[in-house]
Amino acid sequence: MSFLQDKIFKLKGKVQHYAWGGFSYIPSWLGEENKDNKPYAEYWMGAHPSAPSEIQTPNGTLSLDVLIKDYPEEFIGEKVQKQFGELPYLFKILDVHEMLSIQVHPTKEEAEKGFAAEETVGVPLNAPNRNYKDKNHKPEVMVALSEFWLLHGFKPKDELMITLKTIAEFAELEELFLEKSYKGLYQHVMELPQDKVDEILRPLVEKELKRKASGDLSKDEPGWWVCKLFDGKEDSISSIDRGVFSIYFFNIVKAEQGEAVFQGAGIPHAYLEGQNVELMANSDNVLRGGLTPKHVDVPELLKHTTFQGIDPHLMKGKDTNGEKVYNCPVPDFGISKIELSGDQTYSGKASSLEIIVVIDGELTVAGANSVEAKKGEALAILQGESYTISTGSRVLAYKAFVP
């Protein structure tokens, strides 16, 4: 195909209007008006079959997933095609306005088993009670574009003990935790009958709402997020989502702009608020445990959760040849930050298909051909292409690649 003499292309992603998204960050970044006041939650860049990106070529606009199927060697390269059979990552921009569900992602082996089991019993792929949409694992990394808040893993043992000791409503849980550790504690609260959940949590929610009203809460406290959950619903505190327990049991993490958090299989987590760049394996497998109207499968969640306390690790990125690389312990993807000003340049060679998204400023990528991109735009660089990035003024961009 004649257009393949070019190796660098503009890439147009797809917006996902999930209910938890914000209304201004992504439209403003894309330079669009949000006339209908829709939530703009995610902007997807990749070849996921449910929302593939489009590549702008001299032959017109073509779908990235089709191009990879038709020209795997040219687009992703022989090695990646052999190992993964597809572009193994999905790149996103997120604007988290409302809290996301408590979730865990399975390992690759468990995803393959779960997918096969649901196929065998004939659960339709688009059924709301389907857990496994594909056979892949879904490790993910996020880099904060603003101050970003999330829940990430269980608190270390001594911190969780303090939580259970100091919150009167959790008094009966302290002994259970000492006797049966993380799994016993979490399984207990996740399997409680709803009336018992309400009995424990209602007085606690009411107490937190009073603290918020008198200005006694800050974002590093569980009560802040509990109040956010009940914002505008203060008069109907019933059928309380058992995900509230997780807000107290998990680490509350604040990532500053440019800091990253990696979430491997089994680590329970939930995004709370802010904007980020997210990169994940090309999968849609999510096991949910609350804070959501979507399907929650407690037994499946418990089966795949890592029950241990962790100290969250915030990655600052490692300076390597003019980019900051955030090292992730998976073969599916890598992510780096490219920040240039004035006459600075960056040179690279695409090990597989690379996607570069411009967060702010503008850049020119020059190789076999030359393409300019500004804030809100993205570029795809084909496997094997050597290229140089320059800017007329300044640029902040993130690059997704296969290590």
From TrEMBL:
Q: What class of enzyme is it?
A: isomerase
Q: Any transmembrane segments, and where?
A: none
The EC code for this enzyme is 5.3.1.8
Query: Keyword Zinc: yes or no?
Result: yes
State the gene name recorded for this protein: manA
PANTHER family for the chain: MANNOSE-6-PHOSPHATE ISOMERASE (PTHR10309)
Q: Which Pfam families match?
A: PMI_typeI_cat
Answer yes or no on keyword Metal-binding. Answer: yes
This chain's protein is named mannose-6-phosphate isomerase
Q: Where is the Phosphomannose isomerase type I catalytic domain?
A: 8-156
> Which UniProt key words apply to this protein?
Isomerase, Metal-binding, Zinc
Recorded superkingdom? Bacteria
Family under the similarity heading? Belongs to the mannose-6-phosphate isomerase type 1 family.
Q: Which cofactor does it need?
A: Zn(2+)
- Catalytically driven reaction(s): D-mannose 6-phosphate = D-fructose 6-phosphate
What organism does the record attribute this protein to? Danxiaibacter flavus
The GO molecular function terms of this record are: mannose-6-phosphate isomerase activity
